[in-house]
Every structure is written in C-alpha cells, then in structure tokens.
Design brief:
2 copies of one chain form a homodimer. Chain A is mostly helical. Chain A has 2 domains: 1-59, Multidrug-efflux Transporter Regulator, Chain: A, Domain 2; 90-133. In chain A, 60% of the residues lie in helices and 0% in strands. Chain A has helices at residues 5-12, 16-24, 44-57, 62-73, 79-115. In chain A, helix 1 (5-12) crosses helix 2 (16-24) and helix 1 (5-12) crosses helix 3. Chain A is flat. The interface between A and B is large, with 50 and 49 residues. The structure holds a DNA duplex.
DNA sequence: CTTGACACCGTAGTGCGGTACGGGGTGCAT
DNA sequence: ATGCACCCCGTACCGCACTACGGTGTCAAG
C-alpha cells in the first residue's frame, strides 16, 4: 500500500507543503510518480519525516539532518568516509547529551532550593555552564 | 573589574550586535550604565551569553531560554510556579536526552555495520525512531 | 586637544525553515 | 458528467535570530 502526500503529512503532524519543501531540499527522496500524477509514498516515508522533526528539536539544522540521512544512501561505496562522518556525529551527540545533563542538574538543584524555601539568589542555573568548549 | 560590550562579545565568540539584541529581547539584564555612557558588564555576563549559545545548540528557542533564565529572577515570589516550570523543563530535557541516545545507538550500529563491510542496505538510521510520542 | 578605536542608536537586510496562496489538474463517488 | 476532496506547481510571504549599516557620541593615549 502506498500513501498520498496528504496522508503522510497528517500522520506526521506537518503540512503538505513541508513535505514538498523537504523534497526540494533533498531531505527525502523523490517518491515514485506515474508520469506527472500524484506522488506515491511508501509507509516508511512517515518515519523519515518524523526523524527529521525529532532531529530538528534536538538542535540539528536541516543541512546536518541531510548529512545524517545521506549516511545510509551511499554507504556501500565510500565506507570509510561514512564511518568517519558517523563518528563525528556521535561525538556531537555525546556533547549535546552532556550539556543537557548539566542543564538538568542545574534545574534539579533549583527545584531542591525551592523546596527549601531559600530565595536562590546565588543562581543555580549559572552552574549549567562548564567552562570547557 | 567591569567589561565593555565588545570584550564580552569577543569572549563569547559573538558579535556586539548579538548582545544588544539579547538585551532588547530581555534575555540578559540591562547592565549598569552611567547616564547614557557605555554599558558596563560584570564578568558573569560572559557566562550568561555562553549559556544562551549552548541552550540554542540544544534546540531551545530564545523564548524558551528566556523562560529558563527567568526561573532564577523572580524565584523568591512565586516559588511553586517556578518549581512547576523547572520540572516541566526537566521533563523536556529528559526527552531530548532519550532521543539523542536513540540517535547515537543508531549511528553506533551504523559504524559497526560499516566495519563488517556489509552494505547496510537495511538502514540503521531509521531505527533511531521510536514510535511513541 | 586631537585622533582613533570603540560604543551608542535605530532601521534595514539576511538566511533558515517553513507557510500561504492562487490557478490549475486528478480521480472517485454519486 | 458533475461534484468535491485532494493533488500539482510556482511564487510570495512569514517569524526567528541575527547581521550590517550609517551617522553620532565617548574616552583613553599620546
């Protein structure tokens, strides 16, 4: 069974125009289309679009998401390059996780301070800032 | 010792205009300023701006970052509300961490598949997509 | 007391990531 | 064969987060 663009869009909670936009930008592959008729999407298209939405919410740009997605496309040919890029992305992600954990720790500390009814004038949010780059 | 806007900007790797912009948007508090002279920043200003940069890279909008920062400002007055908002943010952050871990797992799997010289035609990146939301 | 680097302000322009619109075409249902 | 919902395309527009610009003011060093 194939899906129309509208069905994919509804299942992803985005607009039809967004999917056409992603197609123009090369984030999702052109769906099969019988000579200027409607686009026909495989059910997996929904997962691709959801991946894009999720990655965006995690601070990746569409350019980066495109890179991420392209890792699978040409993997057979230039395996070493793919591996390198994947490892770089893993490092990025690990850094993001560390920073999020720092922010979380700071916020937890804030709620604890709150419970204790102290006015938290010495701001705990500032402690979410390790000084290494 | 106080800093000029240019010194803060250089230490944060942003432009002077960016800091003025953050000030206009209420993300950083107005620095003390002797009656229409230059802005005088405390050294902590550098940390605030770096916090904003970092939070942006983690997928928070300036609106959200403003909320995050405001948690410290009026904490003495509406402690319960602050606690609630902080807890909501913690939940957001935990969700982000989970999604990042899923992406990382998928990428690690990709590099492993790569090592094994298999063409990874069954895309492991797609597995970064849990279907709950 | 001049000079040059930097700061001040407001407004306009940029790039990203969509979002809306208008004028059509398609396709199935009645 | 006539609706009607949905799709096609291109182009214009939008909000966010800056970034650049241009004309003026400040100030510390020489």
């Amino acid at each position: 069974m194939t899906l129309t663009i509208g069905q994919v869009a509804r299942q992803c909670g985005v607009g039809v125009e967004t999917i056409r936009f992603y197609e123009r930008e090369g984030l999702i592959t052109q769906p099969s289309r019988p000579e200027f008729g409607f686009r026909k999407y495989p059910p997996d298209a929904v997962r691709w679009v959801r991946f894009i939405q999720r990655a965006k919410a995690l601070g990746f740009s569409l350019r980066e998401i495109k890179d991420l997605l392209s890792l699978r496309v040409d993997s057979a040919t230039t395996c070493d390059a793919v591996k390198g890029r994947a490892e770089a992305k893993i490092a990025d992600i690990e850094k993001k996780i560390v920073h999020l954990q720092e922010m979380k720790r700071a916020l937890v500390k804030l709620t604890v301070a709150c419970r204790g009814k102290r006015p938290t004038s010495e701001c705990p949010i500032l402690e979410a800032l390790g000084d290494e780059d």
